[in-house]
Amino acid sequence: MTASLSHTFQTISNAFQDLFFPPVCHRCEQIIHQKTDLPILCEACLNLLQPVPVEFTKETLLENIKPCFIDELWIAYQFNGAAQVCIHAVKYHQMPETGKRIGRFVSGQFGKEMASFQDKCIVPIPLHPARKKDRGYNQSEQVAVGMFGEKNIYRNVLQRRRYTESQTKLSHARRRENVQNAFEVMDKKFVNGADFVLLDDVFTTGATMNECARVLKENGASTVSGIALATPLMDD
Q1: What is the DSSP annotation of the chain?
Q2: The whole model's pTM is what?
């Protein structure tokens, strides 16, 4: 089959699929009549994504981490209903390709800052092997690939050596205890003197990302920045 025929067949197939199985918004559950940059959200729900004020990341999030090993932090959106739907789709509903779409979409939110990331090592927060096997992939890794491309992702820098319980319902203090000494560097020679960007899906207290940054810094990393998709403006 030629490339032209293959493209025509795919177009017809997509048209039939949209006709008999129209896409539905994962938040409001209404049929999506006009496709958006994030196919799981309709235009109205997509517009509910609210950027995080820059001053909030600097003056509130990083200031509340003591000691803080993260040099700079960028977060795309507030963790509201629309953001939660996007993150849960990738994290719990077996939609890895949606993770890449989210990554591409979020990269536009950072604008000119994206250029400053290009010369750094992009490291998705690693999952424990057991959890990754259960899920089938690392959701942060999928987002990172969407943002920066496959060749720019460094998977063999950090590993999670200890299985930890979910941070979701833990207190601030328990979150720190839960991830303490949970990560280790895989190649100290590579880390020494290098600049890193850690990428995670949700940044709440920052315990996980800060612990990863601590391990990198103690093994000679020059700088460690952080990126997250979303954060709750008020931690409950």
Answers
A1: --HHHHHHHHHHHHHHHHHHS--B-TTT--B-SS--SSTTS-HHHHTT--BPPHHHIIIIITTTSSS---SEEEEEEE-SHHHHHHHHHHHHSS-HHHHHHHHHHHHHHHTTHHHHHTTSEEEEPPPPHHHHHHHSS-HHHHHHHHHH-GGGB--SSEEE-S----STT--HHHHHHHHTT-EEES-HHHHTT-EEEEEEEE-SS-HHHHHHHHHHHHTT-SEEEEEEEEE-SS--
A2: 0.86
